[in-house]
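Dear U.,

For the methods section draft, I wanted the exact inputs and outputs in one place so we can describe them consistently. I've listed the two proteins in the order they'll appear in the manuscript figures. Please don't edit the token lines directly; just add comments below if something needs changing.

First protein:
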Amino acid sequence: VQLQASGGGLVQAGGSLRLSCAASGRIHSINAMGWYRQAPGKQRELVAVITGGGSTNYADSVKGRFTISRDNAKNTVYLLMNSLKPEDTAVYSCNVADGETDYWGKGTQVTVSS
């Protein structure tokens, strides 16, 4: 399974970005799909996750600002990020659980200027 992430970039504080991550290859049964981020000098942290049934969970720091969604027909997960803050600057990576195997996509840089 390969994951292709896109949508990162440079945005001013208060702006918005939408990340996408499409899974392809020998996909069996995708369950949870999620986004993680890692800022310089910090550990990777969970941003948001969505289960196969559509249940979602968010980091407290992004609740009310970020929305995770998925298109099962396209094996794609999205992250809509609104009201971005400089502290959201990080490399964002997608994660997909296919059966009992986790797959990671290459990260995409999100930079929020003040």
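Second protein (the one for the lower panel):
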Amino acid sequence: QVQLVESGGGLVQAGGSVRLSCAASGRTPGAYTMAWFRQAPGKEREFVAATSWRGGNIDYVDSVKGRFSISGDNAKNTVYLQMNSLKPEDTAVYYCNDRLQTWNWGQGTQVTVSS
């Protein structure tokens, strides 16, 4: 069973940057797509960004295009989310999983953007 551990969140001012990491232990090699999701207070979890482990098939939700960048390090089994020009509406708990949300969710990492 794959275990997901997210890290890198924190409190940041609007306009600032944060880099999130997701370590996926127990992952078997595959051509699947890794993704980041987020859940804001009182809202459902939503898709944020996705990439294949080979670096292709990159996709973003419209609200983060041009500000966020997803990347993966296959050798380290780690996926990153570089978040720039942060806005208060980006405040949420961020999670990673495969694009189809196959695995058990990790604990997530909180990102709080102050105005």
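Candidate sentences for the figure legend, describing the second protein: The radius of gyration is 13 Å. The mean pLDDT is 92.

Thanks,
Y.
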